[in-house]
What we know:
By secondary structure, the protein is of the alpha/beta class. It is built from 7 helices and 5 strands; from the N terminus they run E-H-H-E-H-H-E-H-E-H-H-E. Strands 3-2-1-4-5 form a 5-stranded parallel sheet, sandwiched between helices. Helix 5 (100-110) packs parallel to helix 7 (134-141). This is UspA domain-containing protein. InterPro entries: Rossmann-like_a/b/a_fold (IPR014729), Universal_stress_UspA (IPR006015), UspA (IPR006016). It comes from Cinchona calisaya. Residues 7-150 form the UspA domain.
Amino acid sequence: MEGGSGRRVMVAIDEHEGSFYALEWAVKNLHESILNSHLVVFTAQPSSEYSYIHAMEPRELRREVQEDQKKTAISLLENAREICNKHGITPEVVTEVGDPKDAIREAVERLNIQLLVIGSHGRGALKRAFLGSVSNYCVHNVKCPVLVVKKT
């Protein structure tokens, strides 16, 4: 792994273009810093452990959904790795199952991350009220500086 300073930077990604924009922004604008750090690219596989899903889905269908989520996560991380490699950066890639907000917060603590970079989906106030905002949650609950990159 590149970087000798011991600093750890994590970029959290998902399937929305805003997260890949944040990754591109980070490797371009923080290039020197990232070259001298340990870069982790992280994605969460949403948990399908909601009671209404268990009540409606046969076990086999749940397993297929979980496998699809895992394949999606692996594909996202492969794309992220390619973006980083184009900029001469070799990231560590990590995926975990769970609610994205909690999974990111827990990964930041467990991996001793010093800077979290996360994209903004650009949802309006109404959508944020109903769906929540992962970036807003991270800004207020993660125990390191958080850089929210908004696509303009």
